[in-house]
């Protein structure tokens, strides 16, 4: 549908007297084409919501043994690393090759390439149908039982928290024998809520970081010209960090840590989540320092009131903060998904992964609300931290 929508847009003629297709003189979209386009976007989002948690849980189920033995847990941990290793290659291609095709060849060709790739993916997936490990759930209606027990678990949550006399000595929050799913949502809620802060930081890589890069010197090949790099493809550094560090972590750091901790995965999932959060905080510190330097460079060059001018500071100053975000995701995002998968009953694995993925979505909304709140507060008190003139804004304070 997106391919058809872009084709309709490409074949729609410009109004009379408009000779430059790059100028903002195109006629507005018709209501039908607008509805068609947004329907395609929402169907794509709906498909992602169904596909990602189910496909990831299905892959992890291939490594679940009959008993809860350490070898199965270690293999499953490697699966989550490998799953995201593959995804990082997809992001790398999307932010480099695909973005170039869409900018220089056309959106229709870009969407057609995505469609063809999905057809090949579906064909390869169906070829292995006979070899997959697929077991019917013991309970035919786990979601119905979850709805019935969630209310009772919510009422008991306060008592469960304040009546415990001993600290939790293992990572697993729910007893292994508890298979009815009672209260697991409420017990995982504190982890889910604290992870939203981590997701807020990750959401800014495609917004504020890109805004920073749009004002910097993006030329490659010398000061006299050369290739001009768009700011968005710099997110490629995150993907490079992913598929560079993941094999090192899985094949070198985990065995090394296992010698000291005796843990099958080297470190626990909660420790890995905490490391990811700490590294993401370090990334924001670096981003603030880089932004402060960029503002100084703009001031020294007399570009404070010229937001469209190029600040004499290389785009590559942004690479460290992108790399740190990539490292934080290697630790935080993967272990968060694995943790939620491990904590839920067998019949609700997809729900557990959906909860972990919802952290990213809620974090994006929370990031937008945080920016709006700070913008309103700082505007009423003087000059906004998110001024339209980025050289007068204070992203370094944020």
Automatic annotation (TrEMBL):
Entry keywords, A to Z: Membrane, Transmembrane, Transmembrane helix
An example Gene Ontology molecular-function term: transmembrane transporter activity
Membrane topology, from the record: Multi-pass membrane protein
Cellular-component GO terms for this entry: membrane
Transmembrane intervals: 83-101, 107-127, 184-203, 223-249, 315-336, 348-366
Protein's UniProt keywords contain Transmembrane: yes
Classification via InterPro entries: MFS_trans_sf (IPR036259), POT_fam (IPR000109)
Cellular location(s): Membrane
Pfam families reported in the protein's UniProt record: PTR2 (PF00854)
Taxonomy, superkingdom: Eukaryota
Family in the record: Belongs to the major facilitator superfamily. Proton-dependent oligopeptide transporter (POT/PTR) (TC 2.A.17) family.
Stated name of the protein: Major facilitator superfamily (MFS) profile domain-containing protein
Organism expressing this protein natively: Oryza meyeriana var. granulata
Taxonomic lineage from the root: Eukaryota, Viridiplantae, Streptophyta, Embryophyta, Tracheophyta
């Amino acid at each position: 549908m997106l391919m058809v929508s872009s084709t309709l847009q490409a074949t729609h003629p410009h109004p009379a007297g408009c000779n430059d297709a790059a100028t903002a003189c195109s006629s507005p979209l018709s209501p039908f084409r607008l509805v068609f386009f947004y329907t395609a976007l929402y169907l794509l989002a709906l498909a992602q919501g169904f596909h990602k948690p189910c496909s990831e849980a299905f892959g992890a189920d291939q490594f679940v043994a009959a008993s809860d033995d350490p070898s199965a847990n270690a293999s499953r941990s490697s699966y989550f690393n490998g799953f995201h290793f593959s995804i990082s290659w997809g992001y790398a291609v999307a932010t480099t090759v695909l973005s170039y095709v869409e900018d220089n060849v056309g959106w229709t060709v870009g969407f057609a390439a995505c469609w063809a790739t999905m057809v090949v993916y579906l064909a390869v997936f169906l070829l292995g149908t006979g070899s997959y490990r697929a077991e019917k759930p013991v309970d035919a209606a786990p979601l119905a039982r979850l709805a019935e027990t969630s209310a009772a678990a919510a009422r008991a949550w306060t008592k469960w928290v304040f009546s415990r006399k001993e600290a939790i000595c293992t990572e697993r929050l729910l007893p292994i024998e508890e298979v009815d799913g009672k209260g697991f949502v409420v017990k995982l809620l504190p982890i889910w809520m604290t992870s939203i802060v981590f997701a807020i930081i990750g959401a800014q890589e495609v917004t504020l970081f890109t805004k920073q890069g749009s004002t910097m010197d993006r030329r490659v090949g010398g000061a006299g010209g050369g290739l001009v790099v768009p700011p968005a493809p710099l997110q490629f550094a995150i993907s490079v960090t992913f598929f560079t560090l993941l094999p090192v972590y899985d094949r070198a750091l985990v065995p090394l840590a296992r010698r000291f901790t005796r843990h099958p995965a080297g470190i626990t999932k909660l420790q890995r989540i905490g490391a990811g959060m700490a590294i993401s905080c370090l990334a924001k510190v670096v981003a603030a320092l880089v932004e402060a330097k960029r503002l100084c460079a703009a001031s020294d060059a007399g570009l404070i009131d010229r937001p469209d001018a190029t600040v004499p500071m290389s785009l590559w100053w942004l690479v460290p903060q992108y790399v740190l975000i990539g490292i934080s995701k290697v630790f935080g995002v993967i272990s968060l998904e694995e943790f939620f998968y491990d904590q839920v009953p067998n019949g609700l694995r997809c729900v557990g992964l959906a909860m972990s993925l919802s952290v990213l979505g809620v974090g994006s909304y929370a990031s937008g609300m945080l920016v709006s709140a700070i913008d309103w507060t700082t505007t009423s008190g003087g000059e906004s931290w998110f001024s339209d003139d980025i050289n007068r804004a204070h992203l370094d304070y944020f």
